[in-house]
Amino acid sequence: MRRNRTSPLILSLALLTALSCHTPTNYARAQVTDDSQPATSNVRGGQYPRVHSDSRVTFQFKAPAAQKVQLQPGGGGESGLGSRTLDMTKGDDGVWVVTTPPAVPGFHYYWFLVDGVQVNDPGSETYFGYGRPTSAVEIPEKGADYYEAKDVPHGDVRVRWYHSKRTGQWRRAYVYTPAEYDTRTRTRYPVLYLQHGAGEDERGWTNQGRMNFIMDNLIAAGKAKPMLVVMDCGYAMKAGVSVGTGQQNFMAQIGGFEEVVLNDLIPTIDTNYRTLANRKTRAMAGLSMGGFQALQIALGHLDTFAYIGAFSSPPRPGFDAKTAYNGVFSDAKKFNKSVKLLWLGAGTGEKGFYASTKAMHESLDTAGIKNIFYESKGTAHEWQTWRRDLYEFAPLLFHD
Amino acid sequence: MRRNRTSPLILSLALLTALSCHTPTNYARAQVTDDSQPATSNVRGGQYPRVHSDSRVTFQFKAPAAQKVQLQPGGGGESGLGSRTLDMTKGDDGVWVVTTPPAVPGFHYYWFLVDGVQVNDPGSETYFGYGRPTSAVEIPEKGADYYEAKDVPHGDVRVRWYHSKRTGQWRRAYVYTPAEYDTRTRTRYPVLYLQHGAGEDERGWTNQGRMNFIMDNLIAAGKAKPMLVVMDCGYAMKAGVSVGTGQQNFMAQIGGFEEVVLNDLIPTIDTNYRTLANRKTRAMAGLSMGGFQALQIALGHLDTFAYIGAFSSPPRPGFDAKTAYNGVFSDAKKFNKSVKLLWLGAGTGEKGFYASTKAMHESLDTAGIKNIFYESKGTAHEWQTWRRDLYEFAPLLFHD
Questions:
Q1: ipTM, 2 decimals?
Q2: Of A117, A131, A197, the CB nearest to B22
Q3: What's the domain range around A124?
Q4: How many residue pairs from chains A and B have C-beta atoms closer than 8 A?
Q5: pLDDT tens-digit profile of A313-358?
Q6: Which CATH number does the domain housing residue B295 bear?
Q7: Is B312 helix (H, G, I), strand (E, B) or coil?
């Protein structure tokens, strides 16, 4: 029996690797001779998808027995990865391959269709979107580093569990505390409540949106005030309500959220963290469905929120500033005195959302309601739009 | 144009659901007439897998065009979900179904083989294991609630990014702070460094292991001292080292971890959190590969750690107490005075690990080395074993 130091080690590790660890194997061709790099959104060691210097992306998936494999971008035809589902080509080794045209910078959901079945890419981390774990690819934006980890003080993103009386369930919120929070133990902080979109959850703003790096960089540069950012799950069914499938039950799925925010979440945060607990130090914003919720909840509770952000909020057909939101815009002078910021953002690449957001902005302008319309050039209904929203929105918070 | 309150709402939400949200659709049969419940490890609203009251589990996967669909448990033949890959049966609706025999309680990785391709279950959350996002099913253990969320004070699990000089990269650690941490701002705390297994990462102990609930419950009951628990990624390549694929490069993948722990991670934690920074208030433990690392790092640095836990550590063929770990066990009196706890755990259902752990324990006993051998009855090389390890191990920490 060998007793030197390395031999048991190697034997043990061979057992471990055989038992429970592998480098992803669904892409077998590792001979890369071009300038492409593995996407930063990949799993540790994942070689595909690879992003080329001109932002083309090469995907691979091994499925020797499949008849047809396709790459389908998320976003319903408005992805920065392209609007079309692309057929992949099978090689002799059973590996299907496709390279996209140059992609728009940002974070793009995708999946493979393997003989019609939606399958994630084992080379990609999963990100919760579309109501399920979903693959995604990060395309760097040249010259933009505001959402990168830098050598600045870093805040923590805290996973906070709390019990909701309204839903009867334990819920999980993510809470960003700025870097100084642990050392300035007598300082209290304002709070931004920040919501994800439909099909996503409380992890989205951190894992997809990189909000922590955006906030770290803004705060370190003195561009934004140190603040807490609270991200909860926008889905909340009232206790006793049941839900089946499909969009007819969508209202049930989010129907308890307003009460959860006002009666469970805010008290939890104000009890457990050193917050400044009044309306002038409380903001609510969100993207897409979360923007809808931010408008609905904050405009309905101006005693609780003074700063409001709607990033790519869905269209409100028939929007009328006189009657919308129970008439909150009907007295412009009163509204403008009360609300310190009303932000409406959209990407120029998201056609419906952009048009409706701009129309709402113009309607509010006409009604004399102070508001900011932000447009993100060239980006679709995707996270790059919302990262930019946050980067421009957060510096405007809590100056009053 | 309709202007009542609900109609634009419903139109907007219909758009949202069409665009980006759905209840998972890969299982179409929702008519459940038995006593089964969706697994708590499922995605929000996911109806399958379902766990029956006798711990059988029913899985579904929709793949109308597939020729063969199988359920494959993780664990290399020693899963609590069963040792065999099970064929699933196709219904007229293209949904493949299988119900397992009664499963062992705990957390079991699995995936589907769809015409040979490994595919995750869209109804399951993903958990990072096997080097990729992986499906899993939680089987309740009757009478065991020590890892459930209870009405006790809850600590936060903090996501902490730090830059590692040794790897040249940004790394992510998870840091559990006990509930009292934010209010007792002059108290400093001992630290347990707690590692995941091969193929997993820094998220494992929280998402799979529920360590935060275990610690919350132990601390609230006065059974464990309030402590920080730091969970890092056990993979760390030294800067400049490259890695290909396969197990021959496994050593490169973990080769930098010891230096990262000692020179990057511990200083980061001691700088950013109120720790008691000395050997008697520092423990290291881990499961499987992490147990191997805990033994290697802590036994090699008794100036840094006084408490050591190896949960299902891999076999060390030829283990000899006289020579192992550079002879650290050769002077039993000295060792026993220095090391406050040496814990070796294994499940009776993990044959190789159990036998080798017990053999190491007996060899150390013979050599006069104080150590505790813990056996988890009936559980395999899986998370229920390690949850029990932590629940029994943590109360023994930091009493000296």
A1: 0.92
A2: A131
A3: 33-139
A4: 277
A5: 998 888 999 999 999 999 999 999 999 999 999 999 998 999 999 9
A6: 3.40.50.1820
A7: coil
